[in-house]
Fold this sequence. Notes:
By secondary structure, chain A is α/β, with parallel strands linked by helices. Chain A contains 8 helices and 10 strands.
Amino acid sequence: MIYDTVIELNGLKRHYDVGGETVKALDGVDLSIGRGEYVSLIGPSGSGKTTLFNMIGGLDRPTGGSVLIDSVDISKLDAYELAWLRCRRIGYIFQSFNLISILTALENVALPTVFAGTPHDEGIRKARKLLESVGLGERLNHKPMQLSAGQQQRVAIARALANDPAIILADEPTGNLDLNTGTEIIDLLHGLNKTRGLTLVAATHDLKMIKASDRVVWMRDGKVEKIERGTIPINITQKTEKEP
Amino acid sequence: MKAGDKRVHLGYAEALRLGNIQLLRRLDRSALNIASIALGLSFYASLLLTDTIYRTYESLGGANVSVEATYYWLVAIALTVSVVGITNAMLISVQERVKEIGTMKCLGALDRHIVLLFLIEALLQGLVGGVIGYAIGLIAAILSTGFSAGYDIILKVPAAQNLTLFASSLALAVALSTTATIYPAYRASKLDPVEALRYDL
């Protein structure tokens, strides 16, 4: 393929042993995702979406097959390199936001920069800019509980961007939001994908998210059932050829 | 990915900043730990100070009074109880922060960063508890010896001796607090982020 592959899954398997019975959370997934691509994952609960996320994010180790991020097999990385990968290359967005309750919005967004070794002042400056860019410039010193669900998810998005990752993994990012707020979050994510060239992989049930994506991956029983183009088709080859 | 620069960090300054935030914004829980250390330590400091005061009194020509040895056993028990109390409180703390720890690991924290964060928090609690405990112990010692040796006798205790006692009390408080937190911190650091993020309180 001409375009630059950023995530490559080859025969990815993850089996769990639950009470002597083998649960096949992932059972041979092959998928490659290009740089700057927006991919939606759909499937019933238990189809392996979250496990797939954990694999791409280096949080979990495969039983079989491989995960390649930037052509590096992440099962060969040690704990330090995996932490670096999570810190610098991947931004996580969760359904339940997972902000740290005792930290302000600004401190939450600056937290990943701490682990990246960014000097304190620079991290705070960056966090402020990111919060302003997601429309929360007036809410810097609010704690998560003082923010609405939509605002909390914006903080989480800003935090995911703190170390300029190449990949954003979003697990049901609109799952806890109402219709309007959900649409705003989708627009925000879609905008980031287009303007920053971020690779966005999102698990979702939300039809609006699916419509905005380049490709839709249907999962069932730990396997890829089918892959469709999103309803806004984008020629990936053309798009990425423009990039340096 | 380039080799060689693949490192995550947590500097002591940042760990201290985060530990301080934990201490101040989870004041109820940290106050309990601080109180536990302060109580055990005030007993310890008051005994040592009483002993020092009596010896000063004796060297100034006063009668020979001494602290009974059995009290030291009681101090040892009091300090053990406070260590167990802190371990227990910290284990509950870890349970409360499962998601927080999982999130931090997701953001790039290493196991030892989690350990460092908990130990720094314990160190701060130990310092505060130590200062408070020493102050209470000092007051108790002055009050208990004042009747026989005079309330101003503390001023006659050599400054170096007083300072050494203060320093050793603080060191003990910090040592106890961090020792009590080793196991909870280890437990926290070994949390599997996948499990931790799925965890609901």
